[in-house]
């Protein structure tokens, strides 16, 4: 018992320089060699505070329980720990295995704290920074206390990317914090924003999601990043205003707002890239293999997206063939190896969507001409021949999907406009502003009530149940709006006992890929340059994944280049029509 | 109050400006690069597409505006419910911040929504008043307007008095002006109760009563109104309503000099924007008080310059025609021609008869045919189609015989006896055996040479 409690306290004894600590009844450490009792105490685990991860190792001195305003001392990383805990719990209720929270995420987090020298180490980082921070604010003569405004703070996005402002901002306030101590509720809030970026990965709110995704990926849970982010936006996973779940004693103000107050939804790329960075930063080993029995394997995900896109089941055969042909189904390709810069990292959801798009292009060409031709043929056949399953009609499918996509998109757009970003517990920059902020808050609630009564619609009662599927199609429906069982016969022909596509042509989205490092993209997408059918298909998947069509387009280009690699290399003038 | 906040933000913005901007070379002027199209700044990243608070609220605002344009007040209210949140971030000094938007949109919705009440409206406005000092007076004023529109005059008066007593820090010039407006409108309401009491007194007077208290109150209303009204009309602007009321007060108490001075100032002070009504009021005042023709004419002359189509141009023309001076008579012709250039006068019998009378006079006297020629020159290529088409002849004849008579006379002289309008109308008139049309025909035939001279054909040997 003692062993465990003292394991993390490994400073040398001031009297005899031994590291051999025991615990007194009062919770203090004493030296077993010379019986010197330190002032350091072992923190009692505060159960309503943090349940399973151990904050106590962070603070070096007895937590000063009562500050003047009734709050207690707390550190920024404790705040993030709470956020992670809430998110992990939410994921657990969504059906993720309990291991995720207590073992995986918890370990990742400990590892992060250690690597970033915030805890589990000899010399916590905060102290060195503290020494440095005093000098660089000496020139700010004209900045008076309170000048760093709430407006400024909140207008800067909470993510990385504006280090310049962060640093200058923090430095101008650090001096203030000494005199007024108004600048953050947490102990290290103001220091937190000016930490050296190069060696440490600073924790941000979007990064909490990177942590979650990393844990999900480690466990190979059947949840893609786009699913995760959608659940966040739909409110099933706490993210926005998560600080309202902080215990009463953890007061947020000043710079804490900048750290914990979220003003935008996390973006796919941002969370994804941070996850890669994080995995490398933590020196994680190769992740568990993504095999063909995993949900994240393209063959699996393609089934899901084919269903959601209301496409014939038969297409799965084709996506599998493409996956096999270009070897993107192999574990070595799919499994994440942190820090390995030579391989391109896989976004499983985008990859699967892109494979489907490529298959559609292989079979239907999607040049605004050929697919309609095939559709007419299928329509003709369906009219004359009622036996057997109906042939797949692209036109019919387009109409059905377009209709429901437009409806759903409109709903989504309105939801975005109607999103409420504020919570009951308002934040204020300093105690001085508290009354003002509270007054505003009251007025907002009043006005919301007033106009809420005048609005026609009743407030939506409950948020919808979380679902992996956004669009559902059922064979049982008699209106013929489900295409899962439709056959591809009309567009295939038999050659030497093998079914091949009737379509003899293909067009490449791009002849040459760009360098991702130089321009940020592998390909460039402009809607007007491409056939409308192609854009429609991209839009469909962009809706399902909640990402920009251009991301899917990029992935399509990459797959195409793998697919046609030989032909592209061997014969530069492979086909004149490819030239743009 | 909240303005404190706003000022703090401003200060912060100044402090945060980087000093690097000033560190450039002092000798060379800075090179200002033009804007690149947004997509060229850097490769688009997901950041630009991600939904944030601001974007979400902007989209919300668009929905509100769409709903309002389609008069879907319920839907607008629904989206406004979600937009209101942006108040919590409204520390901007930008002109159209969310609070201004919410005030204006909310007002509009409450005015049109079928389930809103005056009580609701008032409570909404009271909240808006606390939202920003800079807008306080404006909100008060519009609130008063709304109350007036709903017939709540006493409430409006109270509201204005309250706003008048409001003080916050140092007044800016804009606030100063707004305060003057508030006071002026209160003055206007004082004028209103003054005139009400005046009517009571007049009624009583007829019945032989005398009511001292009413009279006293009336005088006190006068004083209150006069002070405020006098103030506002000193500031350059368009104050028709205030000027009229003030002049009415002055005239009632016999202070004609002051009234005349006010009106002259209002009409002729070059700092005031050009305002036709100023001249109209002055003219009407002068006419009421039997001032000389000369001053009346000079008032109308300016009005003619500003608004040649004004209805007083008939009076002006009549006055000028009677004048003994040639120049004035010529001006009269100019005035009536100019008035008839406007579609609004097209079927005005009075105007046409004015023109017909003067033209006839000139033709008979055979003097000053060049006046007509001069006016006609610039109009001869478009008046025939504008006034004297066959279609119009038919219609005018059917709808208004006198109009067609006057127009036919003018047409006959200006365009000759062969013109479509004259021919049609005189033919119809003769057929209907109306005497004056026969005389008209004779007159035109007789004076055909005048037409030739006007149209510049007199020297040719061509004879009809």
UniProtKB/TrEMBL annotation, chain A:
PANTHER family from the UniProt entry: TATA BOX-BINDING PROTEIN-ASSOCIATED FACTOR RNA POLYMERASE I SUBUNIT B (PTHR31576:SF2)
GO cellular component: nucleoplasm; RNA polymerase I core factor complex; RNA polymerase transcription factor SL1 complex
Organism: Aquila chrysaetos chrysaetos
Positions of the Rrn7/TAF1B C-terminal cyclin domain: 264-454
Entry's Gene Ontology BP terms: nucleolar large rRNA transcription by RNA polymerase I
Record keywords: DNA-binding, Metal-binding, Nucleus, Transcription, Transcription regulation, Zinc, Zinc-finger
Family per record: Belongs to the RRN7/TAF1B family.
Domain RRN7-type: 8-39
GO molecular function: RNA polymerase I core promoter sequence-specific DNA binding; zinc ion binding
UniProt-annotated location(s): Nucleus, Nucleolus
Protein's UniProt name: TATA box-binding protein-associated factor RNA polymerase I subunit B
Keyword Nucleus: yes
Domain Rrn7/TAF1B N-terminal cyclin: 80-247
From TrEMBL, chain B:
Organism: Aquila chrysaetos chrysaetos
GO biological process, alphabetically ordered: transcription by RNA polymerase I
Full protein name: TATA-box binding protein associated factor, RNA polymerase I subunit A
Organism domain of life: Eukaryota
GO CC terms, sorted: microtubule cytoskeleton; nucleoplasm; RNA polymerase transcription factor SL1 complex
